[in-house]
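We modelled the chain as a single entity of 204 amino acids. Its sequence is:
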Amino acid sequence: MRRLRGLLAALCVSLASLIILAAWRIDRAGTLDTATPAAALVVLGARVNPDGEPSTTLRARVEHAATLYRRGLAPKLIFSGGVGDFGDSEAAVSRRLAVSLGVPEADCLLEEASHSTAQNAAFTTALLRAQSLHTIIVVTDPYHLPRALRLFEREGVKASGSPVVLAPRHRDPLLRAWWTLREVAAHARLSLARLLSGLASHRR
């Protein structure tokens, strides 16, 4: 019994170490700004407040994207995110904020059907192809950026990333740790789904 407890303890320590290492790698990769001039900036949605206004997370993403737009990194902005619990779609609320920051409404496109990061990537890719846009800069929180880029690349989109380092979830150490650790599980599910898909294709 003592030997079994020792083995279980060793397994728990090993698993915890792997999770912490994965979280560290996500955090490090997420803070790298790889943005290069592209056809469009893609801003991933976040919660809308009960009063219909953007949450602090969504506001930080839109403000960052507007700054990149003014710097001339892309001539179009695509706001991605469907209707949540309150108000208009995340995309529509984002566009309204961007316009108030000086971005011309004509340069804003909306993807309003998505409710997950995978849907952000899939539905936005369809919009990109319809608009003959082939390169993007993904704008989101640092913890979220590596997985978002993986999903857009899976859709065949040439994507670089610009993390919102001033986002509330990144600036608060506890929130930063919590959301990054959550991403470890999300990355694991994505890798597992990719593995199962590959096995299924191989069997066919």
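As a brief sanity check on the tokenised model: The domain at 30-199 is CATH 3.40.50.620 (Rossmann fold). Residues 198 and 204 are 10 Å apart (CA to CA).
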